[in-house]
Structures are given as C-alpha cells and as structure tokens.
C-alpha cells in the first residue's frame, strides 16, 4: 500500500542520486503542488534548490507577502521577485481572455528566465507537475500549456534547456496533500483553494488595470475571509469574485451612483472538471454583500453565480 512516508523516503533518495551536487531552480506559485515539490526537493538537496516566487500583480490581497513569509519559515531558499509592472504593462489594453493568458505566460517566462540566469551553473528545472497535469497536457489552459506553446515560437528561453525534474508526476492531488502534511507544510498552504495561474486577470472581464485589480482584491478578500470565518471555506472547492464591466445605478443618500457589478462564484467539485454552485446560506451571502457594498468604493451591486459546470465554466473567462 502507498504511504506518504515511503513515498518521501524513496523520492528523496532518488532525487539525491539523480541531482547530486547540482543546482536546481523551481518556480513557486503559492499553490499546493509547487510548494510540496519544493519541500520534497529541499529535503533532498537543501540550499542547492533555488526557488523563485514571482509577484505578477494578479494575486489575492496580501498573498505575495504572506506566502513568501511562510516559504521562508519553511526554510526554503526563496527569492521573491516584484514584477507587477511588467505584467501590468503587458496587459494594458487587452480584453481578450486568451490574449491575456498569452501575455501573462510570456512575461512569466521572461521574468523566470532572467532570474534563472542569475543562478550560476544551474542544471535542473524542477516542476510541481502532478499526474492529472500529465494526462491533461493537451489542454489549452494552464501554465504548462502556455510554456509548451512557446516551443514553436523559435528560440527557447534558456531555462527550458535545463534538465527537468518532476517528483510529483505520479501523484493525485489528495496524495500530494498527504505528502505535504507529512512534510509538515502549513495548512494555510495545503488547504488552499485552486487559483488560476493568470490570477485575477481572468476575473476582470475587460482590460486589466492596477485600479481594477485593487477593487477586485478588496472584494475577493471580504468574500474569502468570511468563508474562513464561518467555516465554509473547506466545504467549497473554489471561490472567488469577478469584476464585471457592467455598471449599474444605485443610490447613496441623495446621490445616484453608477458603479461596477461584482459577481461571487463558489463551487463544489471533485476535480474541477465538473462543478456545482455552492448552496451558501442566504444570511452569509447577505452579510458578504453588505460588507462589500459598504466598504469597497466603485462597487454598488453584488450578484451570486448559480450556474453549474457544464456548461458554465468555473472561471468567467
Ligand atoms: P474552468 O474555468 O475551465 O476552470 O472551469 C477549471 C479549473 O482550472 C482553473 N483555470 C486555470 N488554471 N491557468 C491555470 O493555471 C488558466 O489559464 C486557467 N483557467 C482556468 C480554474 O481556476 C479552475 O480551477
């Protein structure tokens, strides 16, 4: 029978044999997979693992600082790279969802390549690929697909010429979580909802600006922290907010307002392939809606998405 202890023991031994005294570079995302992959490789080769965590300006509120901090506490050799403006510049004026994904993928590769170049004599690229990613590698969505599409655009970035190591390639998500638990990775990382690589960019249904990101971060933060406070967070597979380009009329005192409509989305799912909308309690939705409208400037209406997948996808774009 498979146990996480045996898996860790065998994998650490394999990694030590495979990698020896070489240096390895790995991109951390804040998600479960890259974090567990990092801790496993760190267990095997310690400081020869160089982790890079990129702030693309599209993460949740305070996420970059909080997660970077927990990585440092875990003893990882990690460099946080603030590249917000490079991403915002590349996204300026783009509304098409696939063009957003392409721009984000391209800038990520540029930033990562710049950083990898600063690690002298690095030999390996580590990735947190898990078994379902291997099966789904034909999908147009997802960071690995983004990287693959660049194979054809001539000149590979240098880091992609590195040898690849993917220690989680045979595992399913629940096994990855078990390995993470055995490695004593924080529950705030292991229990985290899935979050798309392109981040909040694909939850802003129009062109992305730093101002819109700031509005959406506040809305999302109110929604997610209330889910956590009420214990509903763990009952939901994934939750988030969408900033729609629709503006609607409202009243505030004697004034009429004309501001954004935001949508809240929360779903239950096993694997993200199909999903049902979460039956969150009315009282909870009422509280979250009030708090958003009272606190977030630029938003005067909140709606809740009651569509299941299929046909509606989890993300709106
Ligand atoms: P959909 O919207 O297709 O999403 O129902 C299914 C799952 O995939 C995530 N998702 C992405 N993840 N890059 C990613 O890394 C992407 O471009 C992307 N698009 C969607 C989504 O958050 C959900 O968990």
Explained architecture:
The protein is of the alpha/beta class and 317 residues long. The chain starts with a helix and ends in a 13-residue tail after the last strand. It has helices at 4-19, 32-45, 63-73, 84-91, 97-117, 131-135, 143-149, 173-182, 187-190, 210-229, 282-295, and strands spanning 23-28, 49-55, 78-82, 122-126, 163-165, 238-252, 255-268, 276-277, 299-304. Strands 3-2-1-4-5 form a five-stranded parallel beta sheet, sandwiched between helices. Strands 6, 7, 8 and 9 form a four-stranded mixed beta sheet that branches. The longest helix is centred in the middle third of the chain and has 21 residues, at 97-117. The protein is built from eleven helices and nine strands. Residues 140-153 have low confidence and may be disordered. Helix 1 crosses helix 2 (32-45) and helix 2 crosses helix 8. The chain has two domains: 4-190, HUPs (Rossmann fold), CATH 3.40.50.620; 209-304, GMP Synthetase, Chain A, domain 3, CATH 3.30.300.10. The protein is globular and about 70 Å long. The structure holds xanthosine-5'-monophosphate. Residues 101, 141-143, 194, 196-198, 238, 272, 309, 313-315 line the site of xanthosine-5'-monophosphate. Catalyzes the synthesis of GMP from XMP. Its EC number is 6.3.5.2. It is an enzyme of class 6 (ligase).
